[in-house]
Write a structure and sequence with these properties.
This protein is mainly α. The chain folds into two domains: 77-128 and 349-463, Cytochrome Bc1 Complex, Chain D, domain 2 (Orthogonal Bundle), CATH 1.10.760; 132-335, no CATH class. The chain has 13 helices and eight strands. Strand 6 (400-402) and strand 7 (405-407) form a beta hairpin. Helix 8 crosses helix 10 (324-335) and helix 12 crosses helix 13. The longest helix is centred in the first third of the chain and has 26 residues, at 45-70. The radius of gyration is 25 Å and the shape is globular. Residues 5-16 and 18-23 have low confidence and may be disordered.
């Protein structure tokens, strides 16, 4: 055989092999959707960390651009209005309007027209996680710094930082009020409660069972992003996180996460951590899960929510299986004595004392229980009906992908209590509403109540007194 024939034969063999390989790839079935996360990670931790650190600037730039497009993020505190320990409350509607629209003109349109003309404000759409495809717990920097100072634990994620500016977050550390010792006022002494100081803060105030509950609430346990495995998101192996990592001082620091009970990933909702104040008057727990007791919720968090709702991965990373009869009960007993902050203008019926309230606040109260239709869900004195409601916001927009989050139907959402609401920004279950002014505009549009500018201002004035 000549050399040219041999070369031709070799070439045909290579081409044939390539065609066979291509056909084999084409014939392989496409990956099927799965409810489970990968357990056996093939990539080394060093490789994962290097890759995600390199991706971090682009991920955060994308989220920052989204926030700046949606909102006015400037620091504009309301004159003379503060949270319980003095942090200024931000004022004004921060959601940006579509070009050519006003809030008045928008409120005159039907949901169908708003949807078809695509003029539903972007800030009213579901808010994605800082990196929605990745998800997981993300903590504000001020909390990370304090935990590192007190305990030496590092809650920094090498792949991601918290996204919302500090001025839109609750005060830190938050005051702690107890239903059992209202005479003491704030019992936090201005400190963040941790494993290092919980005993000195509460010994002599709580009973032994409640003190044990606090200990468990500030004890680190393994969690999806903070553990010892190769698919963690902390640079060093981590002891984990505590319940009070998000519910700081039994309140909230606005830490974010994704709900564990929805698949696939793009349909999972961002969570704005709700306060634990007033759980004693609540009958549903979880923004959408409708768990019936705080004991159920406490156990659910440790077994599933810490691990993105995947008990398979929980077994790998170190699930903390609490004892229901003792540990869960002790944790719940403390949570159930966390009180709302004082509201000096409210009477025993939860409504304003006319002798103490301003004319604007009184008008706002009339609107709350009347034209604005707020009280149909948020009934006095605790401003919740302990039910779930579906606002059907999808009437106003077409499904769309936003930074990895499929914005579609929110579904039924728990009616959170409005007592102490000015202490708990941002608002709605995913934190998409930065101020109370945003919240009033949102519900004015969604409930089609057509409030005037003055009526909206009066309603905000009332909400600040709850």
């Amino acid at each position: 055989m000549t050399k040219s024939k041999r070369n031709l034969g070799a070439g045909l063999t290579l081409i044939g092999g390539a065609l066979i390989a291509a056909l084999a790839i084409a014939s392989e079935p496409k990956p099927q959707p799965t409810s489970y996360m990968p357990v056996d990670i093939k990539e080394s931790f060093a490789s994962i960390m290097a890759r995600m650190k390199a991706e971090k600037p682009a991920v955060e730039a994308r989220q920052k651009a989204l926030l700046e497009k949606r909102y006015d993020l400037s620091n504009r505190p309301a004159a003379g209005v503060t949270m319980s320990r003095g942090k200024p409350v931000q004022e004004g509607v921060r959601t940006r309007l579509p070009r050519g629209m006003t809030w008045e003109s928008l409120a005159q349109m039907s949901p169908e027209d708003i949807r078809e003309k695509a003029v539903f404000p972007a800030g009213f759409l579901p808010l994605p996680h800082p990196n929605h495809a990745e998800g997981g717990m993300v903590f504000p920097q001020f909390h990370i710094d304090e935990i590192k100072k007190q305990e030496g634990r590092d809650l920094t994620r090498f792949d991601l930082d918290f996204d919302l500016p500090d001025q839109f977050l609750p005060e830190f550390p938050a005051p702690i009020y107890l239903t059992t010792r209202t005479d003491l006022g704030d019992v936090s002494q201005g400190k963040l409660v941790t494993i290092d100081n919980y005993y000195s803060l509460f010994n002599g105030i709580l009973n032994p069972k409640q003190i044990e509950g606090v200990r468990l609430l500030v004890t680190p346990f393994a969690q999806q992003q903070f553990n010892q495995t190769e698919d963690r998101r902390s640079e060093k192996p981590s002891r984990g996180v505590t319940c009070f990592e998000c519910h700081a001082n039994g309140h909230t620091n606005a830490s974010t996460h994704l709900v564990g009970d929805i698949r696939p990933q793009e349909f999972r909702h961002r969570i704005d951590t709700p306060t634990l104040r007033g759980v004693n008057v609540q009958r549903l727990f979880g923004s959408q899960r409708a768990l019936k007791t705080v004991e159920d919720f406490t156990e659910f968090e440790q077994r599933a929510a810490y691990f993105d709702g995947d008990p398979v991965i929980a077994a790998k990373k170190g699930v903390n299986t609490l004892d229901r009869a003792t540990q869960v009960h002790a944790m719940a007993e403390f949570q159930e004595i966390l009180d709302f902050p004082p509201a000096p203008k409210l009477g025993i019926d939860g409504k304003l004392n006319p002798k103490l309230a301003t004319a604007s606040e009184m008008r706002g109260q009339g609107l709350f229980f009347g034209k604005a239709n707020c009280a149909s869900c948020h009934a006095a004195p605790y401003y919740t009906d302990n039910l779930m409601h579906n606002l059907r916001t999808e009437r106003f927009f077409k499904p769309q992908m936003i930074n990895g989050r499929m914005a579609s139907a929110d579904g039924p959402i728990k009616t959170f209590s409005l007592r102490g609401i000015k202490d708990s920004p941002p608002y709605l279950h995913d934190g998409r509403l930065l101020t109370l002014d945003d919240t009033v505009e949102f519900f004015n549009l969604v409930l089609e109540t057509r409030l005037t500018t003055t009526e909206k201002q009066d309603l905000v004035a009332f909400l600040r007194q709850l």
